[in-house]
């Protein structure tokens, strides 16, 4: 199309004149208009081709009925996603490495803090299982009787014990199995079991059945003898520390600091060690603590002094007294010769005496107060008994105490008698593990409290016969009786 130079109307390219105004185009005007029209058409064609190419490079969208084979993959966009995913993964890895580097560089606890934490973890455990082996590495005694000295030295130095005990805190269950050995031969075993209802003790040397005592039986006997009917089960709540608000308010940090000061001067970090724990071995951190008799007595006195000065401990003690006395009044378990008012007054008097004693101590240590009252010289007491204790404690990465090797050397001088010994005790601990307590068969026990006087007399004769038989048949007892033990 071309424009009329007169009226500016649109005209065909090959028109000789304008159909609107009749203007006649010259040959020169026709030539110029044709060239401009061709340029415009060429520009439109280029723009159309560009738009067409752009549409062709756009990635088609798959609908629900399309397949991967219907669409041609676009490598450029796929590469973009791969690069983006790799960058994101790399960023995550870098963050994890940085966090691990920062958190992994936590300050290592000191030996004293590690040991304190291990014992704190032990106190939190709901179940407790331990196996101890105790033996006398050396034993020497010097008295006026040489023969007695030799016998004592032989017997005690060859004596050893193996003790396995387990405890369930919430159920108040306790079981201890003790094996007494002489020259690695068992003399006798003792099994003790205790729970909320009963106590059993079995000693095969005495009888083949366990002796049974029930708490109901004990308090029924008390009622028979005194007329006092005590509801003992209601007092079991007194043993649950969670029932005391004042206990939770005690700041145990003060006592930890006393213990920490004691440890700081005497503990040493030995490093890692491979330790046998029953039928398996484990690599644990070893800490060695060395102290003497005077150190231990001083530590106990320092803790006692802090307790006596601690108002929060005093509040806890008084709360225990108040709860106990309330149960006594509720159950009417106070003595018959007292009225309820007199009993309450006696409890208040007990509290007042406690306050008076604390006030009388002043700044004095309870250690000097106790020994001073007896008129004893502390230095003289420590000189008479020289005790050196070494504890090797093995702790795992979770701050759990797994094993303690204790060696105690004692040299004692009392009334002209000189005695020295070295006792070694190894204990393996297992916390919060499943426990296997015995099942008490009440039809196969010796129920002492329900036996008549004649039955008790017969039982005594039976026990004497059992002991005599055991002594005769046990080779160690036989050696002892015929004197060959001293050879």
Report on this structure.
It is a single chain. By secondary structure, the chain is an alpha+beta fold. 45% of the residues lie in helices and 26% in strands. The chain has 14 helices and 14 strands. The protein has a twelve-stranded mixed sheet. A two-stranded antiparallel sheet has the order 1-2. The protein starts with a strand and ends in a 5-residue tail after the last helix.
Quick gist of this model?
With 487 residues, this protein is α+β, with helices and mostly antiparallel strands.
Strand content: 25-35%
Task: Count the beta strands.
Answer: 14
Quickly give the structural class.
Answer: alpha+beta
Instruction: Encode the helix/strand succession as letters.
Output: EEHHHEHEEEEEHHHEEHHHHHEEEEHH
End-to-end Cα distance, whole Å, is 140 Å
**Rounded Rg:** 46 Å
* Helix residue percentage: 40-55%
Q: Which word captures the global form?
A: elongated
> Which blocks of ≥5 consecutive residues have pLDDT under 50?
40-75, 101-106
How many discrete structural domains?
3
Outline the biggest β-sheet: 12 strands, mixed
The overall pLDDT, averaged over residues, is 79
Side by side, the strands of the main sheet go 9-10-11-12-13-3-4-5-6-7-8-14
* Count of discrete alpha- or pi-helical segments spanning 4 or more residues: 14
């Amino acid at each position: 199309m071309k424009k009329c130079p007169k009226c500016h109307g649109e005209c065909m390219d090959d028109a000789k004149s304008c159909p609107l105004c009749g203007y006649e185009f010259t040959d020169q005007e026709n030539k110029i208009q044709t060239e401009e029209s061709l340029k415009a058409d060429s520009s439109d064609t280029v723009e159309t081709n560009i738009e067409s190419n752009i549409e062709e490079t756009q990635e088609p969208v798959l609908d629900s009925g399309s397949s991967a084979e219907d669409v041609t993959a676009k490598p450029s966009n796929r590469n973009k996603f791969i690069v983006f995913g790799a960058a994101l993964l790399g960023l995550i890895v870098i963050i994890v490495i940085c966090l691990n580097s920062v958190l992994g560089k936590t300050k290592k606890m000191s030996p004293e803090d590690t040991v304190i934490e291990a014992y704190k973890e032990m106190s939190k455990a709901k179940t407790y299982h331990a196996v101890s082996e105790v033996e006398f590495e050396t034993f020497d005694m010097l008295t006026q009787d040489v023969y007695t000295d030799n016998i004592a030295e032989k017997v005690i130095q060859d004596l050893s014990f193996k003790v396995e005990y387990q405890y369930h805190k919430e159920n108040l269950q306790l079981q201890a199995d003790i094996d007494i050995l002489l020259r690695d031969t068992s003399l006798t075993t003792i099994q003790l079991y205790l729970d909320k209802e009963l106590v059993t003790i079995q000693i095969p040397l005495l009888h083949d059945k366990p002796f049974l005592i029930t708490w109901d039986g004990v308090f029924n006997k008390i009622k028979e003898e005194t007329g006092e009917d005590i509801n003992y089960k209601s007092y079991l709540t007194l043993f649950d520390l969670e029932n005391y608000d004042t206990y939770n308010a005690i700041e145990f940090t003060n006592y930890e600091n006393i213990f920490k000061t004691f440890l700081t001067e005497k503990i040493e970090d030995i490093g890692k060690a491979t330790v046998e724990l029953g039928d398996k071995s484990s690599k644990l951190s070893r800490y060695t603590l060395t102290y003497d008799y005077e150190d231990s007595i001083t530590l106990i006195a320092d803790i006692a002094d802090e307790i006596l000065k601690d108002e929060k401990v005093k509040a806890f003690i008084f709360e225990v007294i108040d709860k106990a006395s309330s149960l006594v009044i509720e159950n009417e378990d106070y003595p018959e010769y007292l009225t309820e008012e007199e009993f309450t007054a006696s409890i208040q008097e007990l509290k007042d005496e406690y306050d008076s004693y604390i006030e009388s101590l002043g700044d004095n240590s309870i250690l000097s107060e106790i020994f001073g009252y007896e008129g004893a010289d502390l230095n003289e007491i420590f000189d008479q008994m020289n005790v050196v204790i070494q504890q090797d404690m093995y702790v795992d990465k979770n701050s759990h105490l797994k094993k303690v090797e204790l060696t105690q050397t004692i040299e004692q001088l009392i009334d002209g008698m000189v005695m020295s010994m070295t006792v070694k005790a190894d204990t393996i601990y297992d916390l919060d593990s499943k426990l296997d307590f015995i099942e008490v068969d009440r039809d196969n026990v010796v129920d002492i409290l329900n036996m008549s006087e004649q039955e008790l007399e017969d039982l005594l004769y039976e026990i004497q016969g059992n002991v005599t038989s055991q002594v005769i048949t046990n080779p160690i007892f036989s050696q002892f009786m015929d004197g060959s033990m001293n050879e």
